[in-house]
């Protein structure tokens, strides 16, 4: 069991009390980050524990360790001394904090010391040694919080973490690559995991307690909860964790689904072994590259050359491609099954997602032309499926293939950082604009003028309407975004991963 600890970074105690009220049912512990408080609040911090219903950890984080505190160590010690009059349960002291009298008072009052090390540069070469060197006594809980800059750094951190068994510890990877350490705290044997009120992130990678508790179900996870996830880059904007985790909860399945930002697949798969990851969704830009990691695959992977789902068994990784069916399904809600026969369709992009789309379209008898920035890639894909290709800038050709335009590139995608999608990324790159004007660079076919007869289909689901779709809609076209496709292939993945259908409710 790992505790959910809410880090409070309000400027006043009252503001912090309100944040506690907001999340009280989702949290087990509170960290009062006194370094964020107005100076005039400091003399009152000893009263804080009596004003909230949870155990409280007191932290006065220095600037060099990622906090706001800039005055002298002497003054910090006196703040700690004032605070210790109150009923704090934990106090955070860094490894270089030495104060014999204060330490004695803390021990006498049976306040647990969390002994911490922060490193914003990266994961140390030998994180296990660092973890072992942190506590000064057996009663102290060591905390190592390090910026995690890559898949190899995450691998090192996870390996160290799993080597420290049955001992209290807090080992956290900050930043997007380190995110799994925050939501897999029970699997990693972490004493607690930190989170922040929405919109007040105390450290890189914090999510809010509601997501930790209700989406990742941290309190019901154990060391043996099955781990699934999505790999991609970027990936923290993905809504898949929300979809899958909600399904596990509704179907009472002991599993958790995590977004893994990956820069090098080799390190990710080494870590997947350590965490015993059972299944994966695969997204941009790995749909083609993961094929080399498969031990076997479904025919759709072989014919498309793209894989969006991996499931592990004792025979190794098996690959599937549910993008093909996932792509066709929403289309059939707009037109009938035969509609594609003989239709002229433009596919924008020639990456992994385009492969599945072109396969699906040609299978249904459409006359396809692939438009891509890198023409050679379009040509290669066109040869594979015996269709036409053209440069992205060829608007005359686009007009020719305009019964339907399918946008498969990442252009226009929001790169926001809502790690679960439980509150879909609102920070779209499009912002507000007046009708008919669109921000430049976020539509791969900016020079194309929609006539109104086209169907415009964008595989992107955040934002809900990319500039490509907005422009098409403005011209009177029927539009489809990537949400239905995402849901459709997620349902198929859910069945493969768990053996049960996605709960319909
Ligand atoms: P996926 O597997 O999701 O398809 P991918 O394989 O990385 O991801 O493919 C990304 C696609 O988006 C490619 O077609 C890429 O064009 P290039 O082949 O020329 O790289 C396209 N793409 C990405 N950024 C783009 C941009 N700024 N303008 C136009 N096309 C872009």
| C-alpha-based Rg, rounded | 26 Å
Shape: elongated
Q: Kindly report how far apart the N and C termini lie.
A: 29 Å
- The helix fraction, in percent, is 25-40%
Distinct compounds present: 2'-monophosphoadenosine-5'-diphosphate
Uncertain stretches: 417-435
The major β-sheet equals: 8 strands, parallel
Biggest sheet strand line-up:
7-6-5-4-3-2-1-8
Mean pLDDT: 93
Beta strand count: 20
Q: Percent of residues in beta strands? A: 15-25%
From the helix content, strand content and strand pairing, which structural class follows?
A: alpha/beta
**What's the total helix number?**
18
Topology:
Layout: E1 3-8, H1 13-23, E2 29-33, H2 48-51, E3 56-59, H3 73-83, E4 90-94, H4 100-108, E5 112-119, H5 127-133, E6 141-147, H6 151-163, E7 170-174, H7 179-183, H8 185-188, E8 192-195, H9 209-215, E9 226-232, H10 240-250, E10 255-261, H11 265-275, E11 277-282, E12 296-297, H12 299-304, E13 309-313, E14 316-320, H13 323-331, E15 344-348, H14 352-363, E16 367-372, H15 375-384, E17 388-391, H16 395-400, E18 404-407, E19 455-458, H17 467-474, E20 478-480, H18 483-498
Helix pairs in contact: 6-11, 10-18, 13-14, 13-18
Residues 284-285, 287, 349-354, 372-374, 377, 392, 408-411, 444 line the site of 2'-monophosphoadenosine-5'-diphosphate (ATR).
